[in-house]
Amino acid sequence: MRTALISDIHGNLQALMAVLEDVSRRRVDRLICLGDVVGYGAEPNACLAEVRRRAKKILAGNHDWGAVDRLDLDYFNRNARIAAQWTRRRLSPDERRFLASLDITFSQEGPGGFLAVHSTPVRPQDWHYILSIDEAEYQLEHMDRDLCFVGHSHQPVFWQYQADGRCVVAGREYLHLEPGRRYIVNVGSVGQPRDGDPRAAYAIYDQEQREVIIQRVQYDVDTARRQILEAGLPMALAERLIYGI
Fold this sequence. Notes:
With 245 residues, the chain is an alpha/beta fold. It has one domain: Metallo-dependent phosphatases (Purple Acid Phosphatase, chain A, domain 2, 4-Layer Sandwich). The protein has 8 helices and 12 strands. It has helices at residues 13-25, 44-54, 62-66, 78-90, 93-101, 133-142, 221-230, 235-243, and strands at residues 2-6, 30-33, 57-58, 105-108, 114-117, 147-150, 157-161, 167-171, 174-176, 182-186, 200-206, 211-217. The strands form 2 sheets. The chain has a 6-stranded mixed sheet with strand order 3-2-1-11-12-9. A 6-stranded mixed sheet has the order 4-5-6-10-7-8. Strand 7 and strand 8 form a beta hairpin. Helix 7 (221-230) packs antiparallel against helix 8. The longest helix has 13 residues, at 13-25. It starts with a strand and ends with a helix.
C-alpha cells in the first residue's frame, strides 16, 4: 500500500493541482488529506472540490474549523483571522456543513498501521504545534502508536523516539522506519511552505518498503500570489509564497 499524504493546502489551487498531478504519476493507492484545505489562499472552493473528489479521507484542520465557526478566531493572528473571515463568506452551505463534519483523527490498524492528525497525536483538538525536540519528545512518549503523520507547522521533518527515550530529528526528506522506534512525520505544506523552500511539499508512505519520502513540487507561485492580492487578502500572505516562509 502506497499512501500520499497532503496537508495545509490553504486555498492555493495552483500548488494543489501541481501536487495532484505529481501524485498521479507516482502510482499511489490512495490520498489522505491532513487538513487545512482552506484559509490564506484565494481559491478555497476549488481546492475543497478537488480534495473531496480525490482524497480517500479528509481530516479537519484549525483553519477549516475556523472558517465554519467551530473554532474561535481569537486563536488566529490578524492575517489568518482576516483570511478566515474572507473564506467564510465564500463557502456554500454544503461546503460549510462538510468542513464542520470532518473528523480530527484517522487511524489505520494492523501491520504498517498509523495515526493521522492535523496537529498532534496527543490532544489534537488543542491545535498545538510540534516545533522543538522537547515538544516532539512529549508527543512521542505519550502517543499510543509507533507512527503518526501530522501537518500544521508547514515544515516537513521526521521526529524519532529512540529505545533509550531520546528524541532526534531523523531527517527531512527520506525516512526508513526501524523496528522498535516511534515516529512523528510532518508531511509539510502544499499551499504555504514555511521551511525556506517555496515548492509544495507532501509525503508518500510505502507500507511494504517501510519508508516515507517527502516530495517537492514546483508550481505557479506568481499566479497564486496575484490571486491573493486581487482578492484583497493581506499582502503578506502573497509575498511569503515567494520565499517559503
